[in-house]
Design goal:
Length: 117
């Protein structure tokens, strides 16, 4: 079975995170997006230290979609250089892995939804 993949990214606001996440779910590139608003960031950008409010997000997909997901995320992302980190999953509950795989199949052969995504 294809291994699950978590992708970490940030957005400038809740609306963009949810809208982009929904588009990626509808395109079956991710099974789910978890959006965590209220994050404060301190970062270096073009030689200056910046501060700002952001929204963190974890996207649930599988390794076979890593390149396509990255391309789709970059194409929609409002940042010039979005953070996109692939976090390989060392292990996963078999039912969770099967759900992620089923929900990201292009033919729409979706499995049962977990009680909590």
């Amino acid at each position: 079975m294809e291994r699950p993949l978590l992708v970490y990214t940030t957005f400038p606001d809740l609306a963009s995170a949810l809208n982009i996440g929904e588009a990626l779910v509808r395109e079956r590139l991710i099974a789910c997006i978890n959006v965590m608003p209220g994050m404060q960031s301190v970062y270096s950008w073009k030689g200056a230290v910046e501060r700002g409010a952001e929204v963190a997000a974890l996207l649930k997909s599988h390794e076979g979609l890593a390149d396509a997901l990255t391309a789709a995320l970059k194409a929609r992302h409002p940042y010039d250089t979005p953070i996109i980190l692939h976090l390989p999953v060392a292990g996963a509950d078999a039912d969770t892995a099967a759900w992620i795989l089923a929900e990201t199949q292009p033919d729409g052969s979706a499995g049962a939804e977990p009680q909590s995504a």
